[in-house]
Amino acid sequence: MVVEMEVNNGENTTNNWVPIMKKLHMNVIGEKMKKFPKLTCRTIWRVGKEDPRRVIHSLKVGISLTLVSLLYLMDPLFKGFGSNAIWAVMTVVVVLEFTAGATLCKGLNRGLGTLLAGSLAFLIEYVATKTGHVFRAIFIGAALFFIGATATYMRFIPYIKKNYDYGVVIFLLTFNLITVSSYRVDNVLKIAHERFYTIAIGCGICLLMCLLIFPNWSGEDLHNFTAAKFEGLAKSIEACVNEYFSDDEQQKAKENSSDLEDPIYNGYKTVLDSKSFDETSALYASWEPRHSRHCYRFPWQQYVKLGNVLRHFGYTIVALHGCLQTEIQTPRSVRAMFKDPCIRLSGEVAKALKELGDSIRNRRHCSPEILSDHLHEALQDLNKAIKSQPKLFIGSKNNTNKLTLATVISKGQSCALNSRRVSLSSVKTDTSALLDWKSKLRGGSSTTHENLKLRPTLSKIAITSLEFSEALPFAAFASLLVEIVARLDLVIEEVEELGRIAHFEEYNDDEHVVEIDRKNSRPLPNQLPTQDSGD
Amino acid sequence: MVVEMEVNNGENTTNNWVPIMKKLHMNVIGEKMKKFPKLTCRTIWRVGKEDPRRVIHSLKVGISLTLVSLLYLMDPLFKGFGSNAIWAVMTVVVVLEFTAGATLCKGLNRGLGTLLAGSLAFLIEYVATKTGHVFRAIFIGAALFFIGATATYMRFIPYIKKNYDYGVVIFLLTFNLITVSSYRVDNVLKIAHERFYTIAIGCGICLLMCLLIFPNWSGEDLHNFTAAKFEGLAKSIEACVNEYFSDDEQQKAKENSSDLEDPIYNGYKTVLDSKSFDETSALYASWEPRHSRHCYRFPWQQYVKLGNVLRHFGYTIVALHGCLQTEIQTPRSVRAMFKDPCIRLSGEVAKALKELGDSIRNRRHCSPEILSDHLHEALQDLNKAIKSQPKLFIGSKNNTNKLTLATVISKGQSCALNSRRVSLSSVKTDTSALLDWKSKLRGGSSTTHENLKLRPTLSKIAITSLEFSEALPFAAFASLLVEIVARLDLVIEEVEELGRIAHFEEYNDDEHVVEIDRKNSRPLPNQLPTQDSGD
User: Fold this and answer.
1) Are residues B282 and B306 in contact, defined by beta-carbon separation less than 8 angstroms?
2) Measuring CA to CA, which of A106, A378, A464, B324 is 20 to 30 A from B445?
3) Which keywords annotate this record (chains A, B) (predicted)?
């Protein structure tokens, strides 16, 4: 790359750019092509390793297709169904989904759509047969237009879009097929019958495959995902607080690197992005039969509600994470004073979250000591630590006098030199920064573009040059931490509600005893769900 | 309801519950049935009123279906295509989507899938014809299994799932149809040809309808949605800060009511939930032709990036909103001291956000004075206001002595009595609350359920009983407000990047001149995109 650019470093550089770019482009493509097979193999391997059920599902689809094609391939069966057997193959391809709930939802939608469309088509056929040939064509055309437009419009209604979108498409498809065919074919009834039977066979094979052979339940996925979310949040909080108090400069470099490998970000990311997965899984789960031992209705609505509460809990963690990346930072020496109580508090919150996650995973009520004394002691300690440093929260009294701040900082061992931003603010007083900023802004409209590029940095200077009490960001951090403890209550409430509705096991101190007793345990008769799940 | 319950208030109440519940249930259903037609009509009307393009799209689908059915209904056309004309009808039903991008994506996927499947099926047909009848059936079955399992597994690969999921389904469908049919029918080539032609005709009608007649562009939707997000965020911030400083008790009641009508919540909700819409729209927009006047590539990736930054901006607003709902509140009297600078700052931020939204909506660069002097002045004022109240951030020095706090509060006119929570904390000292909490917790394992219900409230008491400096929550509020200003920079950066990539108009002070000049204006040649949009 560099060589090529140097060779062409003579005149006419702009014209030479194009072939160079092309060459570079070709090189890049060439390299990509070389890497492609290796990358593909790795991706294919990883997809299977992440979730081995995917491999099983693929094999299930293969087996179902082979089974259903027997209808066409084996002579005795072909005589029964004829060429319409092809519809069974189509049904299997379209309906067999990864989880039982999704398959049921699609299969029943397909069945319902076909039935409704068939009935309506026959009604229209009944009216149309009484008219002449040309009129009949016009009548069919008008019916297609009217039903097509109505059905499409129906798909925009939120309730139908959510539950029956696929059903409406199939309704439209079948209706059109039957109505149009009826113009040329006489025995439409036979076609419709055969189509219905073969679709039923296809759906039957799909249901057999998805319900009886290594079934994947959407409800189960949602359940495990919910439990995993708690662990992610717990890790996130712990990592966030640890990083805030770490005096390692490496940590700072890590902050600036991409968010992708950040353990804090990874912890809450899944929670923040969980909305659509939660809702889709809950929708499919609502179609699933009561597959658990106790045959309770799967409380999918409560899982969605818990997901919402967890997302809101996650937003507070994002704000806490924001304290690590903000422009105005409390010096590390000041932070160090509050290190122990904060880390202890975050540890207790993380412990509570992990306990909640475990309780959901094991389908038992959470420990009554989940809001442990330790949590409250940690809160008290933080309280005491903050009160023991009253001077911290006083800013410098005027712009020139930095003594108060300086004394506070010198109290800790290392000083403001550690913090790039603090030194910046001491070099540029706010007035000079603002003046600089204004003069650069007024530089002229011809160089607007450069100004636009410069501005963000300038505004950062303007913010850092403000002499907010430097303990203010720490106050925000501490306040958010306390807020997290307060929000933990809401989460616990929802988890308990879930426990009640889903008839979780009672909490037992000795986990192993619970494991053994689980098979015989029944819920107490007075433990009726306090809230009906929105019948 | 009440009457029935009282009548049955004798013995055996538990058994009588069931019929009562059933009656109530029937009544509820009856009422629902009565309301149903009215509700349905209203919903149907609202769906159309919200977005009149939906009505147009429905009519377009109706017209397309009628057009395509002519292939079957009109004698000369039917002679050309025969009964395979039905595939064209199916294609229209399945492919014609609301936006041009979605239709193109599905249409091209369908075309590509059909072509690939056809080629592969002929290869297999070529091998299979050389074997005997029985062997051929086994060979076909094996091919179905192998290709079915492989294609299904492919759908789990993220890249394929995102871009070609529908194409793989159609590939599998067509492959199975041709391969299975080839066992009984001799001229498979003719079937495949006809199927391909009719699908092409169906796709052609769809493209005609979606590209030429009242086209809806996904890119346009994404563009308008992005601009609307800015307005939502601006409203949210203003409403949030106004509510924080309003001394109206009504506001407090509103806080406790459901989140649904809350203007703050509504403002940022769309932004937080925008992820899946953004990504889907961007995906479809990437398939759309360069429909703008200048024929630039639609910078869909930049819109997704901007959406991510806006979501992160939104999280900070959620945290700010959390300050309104938190357990420990700074007394309103104390807050009032900082009312003006905070409201001014939020007003400036909202103004900047609205300007950004306007600039995107009108496809022009944003005003170079977007980070106005006013914003910096407001920041300075807040800074001064906080520094002028140094005592505020000092908590009481020990548990019994509340004098410092009291003096601070008495400084403002109204006192802690206003705040329910503060009075609570003064009634229960933290030690007594903790003791209470412990004794209730230890009450015995038989009443675990009651304990579980009581706990959250107890933990709230434990938190409020902590004597954190009551200015701490305000410090968090102020810090988050400053954080929002800092994050505004990131947003501005992304908007400018978008402006560069999408070749927005230059900013012009006199908006009307720009409007008139727009037709003749061309981007300057040196304004090449600084970043290639991920070729």
Assistant:
1) no
2) A378
3) Ion channel, Ion transport, Membrane, Transmembrane, Transmembrane helix, Transport
